[in-house]
Amino acid sequence: MFRRLALTAAASAAASFVVVATAPPAAYAESLPHMPPPTADTDRLTVTVSGAGDGMDGTYELRCHPAGGSHPDAGAACEQLDKRTSWGEDLFAPARPGGMCTMQYGGPATARVTGTWAGRPVDATYERRDGCEIARWNAMVPVLPKLGS
Q1: Handedness of CA 37, 71, 54, 52 (dihedral sign)
Q2: SS3 of 110, please?
């Protein structure tokens, strides 16, 4: 019985390998979803910061590809967003619910980012109420202002 099962499994694996090895690479590429090429229309964000102090509060427009708008460091902000953008992942996702976060307070600063990035709508809020939220904020610097800790 075991011998028959092993032979069947080996034959199935060999047949699968032959199918994968002989399939043209274009067949795989055609089945993958494609991201739209970046344009100024698809990469436009509004960043509103409050409670950060030291003149960092305000509402800023950020355009990328090419970088522009009223954001104080549009080039670096666009570069950070491009670097962190990955297919199938939400760059602006909230902190994971139930995550293990340090109990530290990063201050009263809050931010809201709205608009469109990579052809998808964005409406994200940021705070600094615990270690997970502080890390999430810090990962978005310089889109968001750099604050202590």
Answers
A1: negative
A2: strand
Element (H, E) at 47: strand 44-50
The residue written with tokens 């494609």 in the block is: 34
Range of the domain at 115: 44-85+106-139
Predicted TM-score (pTM) of the model is 0.71
Q: What is the pLDDT of residues 8-24, one digit of tens each?
A: 444 444 444 433 344 44
Here the tokens at position 86 are 């990955």
- Give me the number of domains the chain comprises: 1
Q: In whole angstroms, what is the distance from residue 95 CA to residue 98 CA? A: 9
Query: Which pairs with CB-CB distance under 8 Å and at least 24 residues apart come from 9-16?
Result: none
DSSP for residue 44: E
